Amino acid sequence: MATTESSASTAHPSTVDEETRLRVLRGYALYKKRGEEVERFAPFSWCVPSCKGADTYTVDLTIGFCSCPDYRPRKVRHARCKHLYAAQIASAKRSARKGR
User: Fold this and answer.
1) CB distance 23 to 82 below 8 Å
2) Backbone dihedral region of 18: left (phi > 0), alpha (psi from -120 to 50 degrees) or beta?
3) Are strands 45-49 and 56-60 parallel, antiparallel or unpaired?
4) Cβ neighbours of residue 84 under 8 Å, at least 6 residues apart?
5) Which of 11, 63, 67, 95 is 20 to 30 A from 88 (CA-CA)?
6) Cα distance between residue 93 and residue 100, in whole Å
7) Half-sphere exposure (CA, 13 Å, Cβ side) for 99?
8) How confident is the model at residue 95 (pLDDT cuts 50, 70, 90)?
């Protein structure tokens, strides 16, 4: 006897809210546009450029910190800014290139 399940019963609810999804996409876009400028200067610390202009921001992946002005209000809600996501992408790609 075959059992059937509706697709609704097997679907997982989204665990990422819309604001977070947009931040991830903005971080990816930043990495795609200026990824060659994202530089690691300590084991978990990165210098990440601004989307516009010549500003750069310090990102610490161990504590989830960014020096950008957008990070401060987001910290209260434990949200990450696009620079943190761009640094995470750079870190992952660097590790992949090294075969880790």
Assistant:
1) yes
2) alpha
3) antiparallel
4) 27, 59, 61, 64, 66, 71
5) 11
6) 10
7) 0
8) confident
Of 71, 74, 73, the closest CA to residue 59 belongs to 71
Residue whose structure tokens are 């809600």: 77
pLDDT in tens, 38-61: 999 999 999 999 988 889 999 999
> According to the model, what pLDDT value does residue 98 have?
79
Rounded-to-integer distance, Cα 73 and Cα 91, Å: 25
| Global pTM exceeds 0.85 | no
Q: CA nearest 58: which of 47, 69, 74?
A: 47
Using an 8 Å Cβ cutoff, are 41 and 47 in contact? yes
User: In b/e form, how buried is each residue of 13-47, taking b as 16+ CB within 10 angstroms?
Assistant: eeeeeeeeeebbebbeebbeeeeeebeeeeeebbb
Sign of the C-alpha dihedral, residues 44, 46, 51, 56? positive
